[in-house]
Amino acid sequence: DTAVSQTPKYLVTQMGNDKSIKCEQNLGHDTMYWYKQDSKKFLKIMFSYNNKELIINETVPNRFSPKSPDKAHLNLHINSLELGDSAVYFCASSPGTSGGVFQETQYFGPGTRLLVL
Amino acid sequence: QKEVEQNSGPLSVPEGAIASLNCTYSDRVSQSFFWYRQYSGKSPELIMSIYSNGDKEDGRFTAQLNKASQYVSLLIRDSQPSDSATYLCAVNSRGSTLGRLYFGRGTQLTVWP
């Protein structure tokens, strides 16, 4: 009964490879996010989708491409991985708009620890 | 550039004491404020949200907001060793894209028995 799940939990790969991280939420939320947390624990938004529509697209390299096949899933594909991509990537979700009010509380997944060698 | 500043710590308090965590933010039109707790190797979990000036209490936790001074704080009463974690302050701003939270770098709290 995991609320927000991510796979894989750990990802070790070589520079130059392409990899994907998957996220699923079973909370019925409309909005999903990808965050990157660096080695100094700074948590920074990368992307956000609301009902499969991209609403936040931070300044990240275009090697990163999110895909939302439906509102319960938000995947992150990374091309040509670089050493600096090593970090923990968190998926999160929030309810979205209810009664005309955007519900902002965000629920985080367990994280994917990416190490690029 | 909207900034959220926190003392990185570490903040160390004895068991049973009050731990006080502070956060300042740069955007005057910020309207939503959150405190997340993150244990080492785990994901952030929401412990408090506050939207209006004043205090909001939930169990041993009290969030305090002062929009005029642009700070938000979190008090943990009767601190327990299980409270040892990094506490992240997050702020959303009116006019920002819905759901865009700006996080501080976190304050590491250690409660020693």
In words, what does this structure look like?
The complex is a heterodimer of chains A (117) and B (113). Chain A is mostly beta strands. Chain A is 0% helix and 59% strand. Chain A has no helices and 13 strands. Chain A has strands at residues 4-7, 10-13, 19-25, 31-37, 43-50, 53-57, 64-70, 73-78, 87-94, 96-98, 101-103, 107-108, 112-116. In chain A, 32% of the residues are buried. Chain B has 113 residues and is mainly β. Chain B contains no helices and 11 strands. Chain B has strands at residues 4-6, 11-14, 19-25, 30-38, 45-50, 54-58, 61-66, 71-76, 85-93, 102-103, 107-112. Chain B is globular and about 40 Å long. The mean pLDDT of chain B is 90. The interface between A and B is medium-sized, with 24 and 20 residues.
Compose a concise summary of this entry.
The complex is a heterodimer of chains A (117) and B (113). Chain A is mostly beta strands and 117 residues long.
Strand-residue proportion of chain B: over 45%
Mean pLDDT of chain A: 90
Helix share bin of chain A: under 10%
Largest interface, with counts of residues having CB < 8 Å to the other chain, equals: A-B, 24 and 20 residues
**Helix fraction of chain B by DSSP (H/I, runs of at least 4):** under 10%
- SS summary, helix count of chain A: 0
Rg over C-alpha atoms of chain B, rounded to the nearest angstrom: 14 Å
Strand-helix topology:
The complex is a heterodimer of chains A (117) and B (113).
Chain A: E1 4-7, E2 10-13, E3 19-25, E4 31-37, E5 43-50, E6 53-57, E7 64-70, E8 73-78, E9 87-94, E10 96-98, E11 101-103, E12 107-108, E13 112-116
Chain B: E1 4-6, E2 11-14, E3 19-25, E4 30-38, E5 45-50, E6 54-58, E7 61-66, E8 71-76, E9 85-93, E10 102-103, E11 107-112
Parallel strand pairs in B: 2-11
Antiparallel strand pairs in B: 1-3, 3-8, 4-5, 4-9, 6-7, 7-8, 9-10, 9-11
